[in-house]
What does this fold into?
Amino acid sequence: MPLVRYEPPARQIVMYGDPVSQMLPKALSELWSRQTILVTNMTSAAAESYVQSFQEILSDAYSERLSDRADRSAVLSVTGALRHAGTEAMVAAGSGAAIETAKAARVCLTNNVAVPEDFERLRKSTTAASPRPYLIAIPTTLSGEEYLPFAVIEDKETGGLQPVQHTDLAPDIVLLDPHATLTTPESEWLASGMASVVNAIETGGNTLGERPLAKAAALHGLTLLTKGLRRSRTHPLDTDARLMCQKGAWLATQGLAQGALPGPCHRIGRVLSSVTGLPRGLVSAVILPHVLRQSGGTAESQAELVAAMELSDNPLDQVVAELLLDLGLPSSLSDCGVKSEALSDAIDFFSEPENAGDFAQRPSADFVNAVLDAAY
It folds into this structure.
């Protein structure tokens, strides 16, 4: 048996059980932080009261309003704000895009990235120093970005994706308050939940015996997500169901947080989201059954995943399709409004030598072509 080395993820505090209005002051106290910056993409009228309450707790801290994409311009804007003297902590509230932007800005700050041309340095190395300032995340969706030690930055001009990573990049504290998610549009909530279902299935089915803690977390996370998403779809104000989903997303992401490689659905979904502008969770959810049919998997791992979802005894790809139907999500890319040109762009991305890589790490262009053709 080859040597297995287990490295637990960096220290991270996760809080839940109280309203965020009570947890946020406690989190700031834990970090001994006073001078803060608020980064958020909670821009709806319904969410405005939450944003105002955060600003009051943070003593009218500088606030950076973001779009729903983690792109270079947003990262540079936040990085510039962090250069203000005395900034001790950043609070990122909103979807995965807000949290990814905040994470990337920390790396940019410690690597002195100030203009777009400086991003090239991040492809070669990142500083050994821990990213600063401290980061507190208040997620309002279920993407799981708040637990991951990496971020992916979009370049709107070229359409490229640039990953940045650091062992300490994940937020220092995560605050889970299901009430804060009530302003999230239902489609965004459910689609982001499916992004975590993807994480659970791809790590739970592929970690085998190498990461037993991550696999156990993924399987239980899958159970919580399946139950919680279906309940929150039929009872949108059920905060117990929403907290179940939040816990499920936390557990589902532990494989990636511990160093497991993203699976093909995760990687294809990232690229397709970039070229279409659609949420990653949505496109990942639609292609997942087709990725499962193309990639297969051991009968044992598939049986474990099917059992965890507790929906039926059908093959795993069919069980995932059943969940999509229960959640009222589209079953094809054409139903999402995806144009055929976008599929070509995604396939071209994986055809490039620098993007193709080893199949164990990145799906081949032929694999992507088969999946997207079946999903369209």
Q: What stands out?
A: The radius of gyration is 20 Å. Strands lie at 13-16, 36-40, 62-65, 89-94, 134-139, 150-154, 161-165, 173-176.
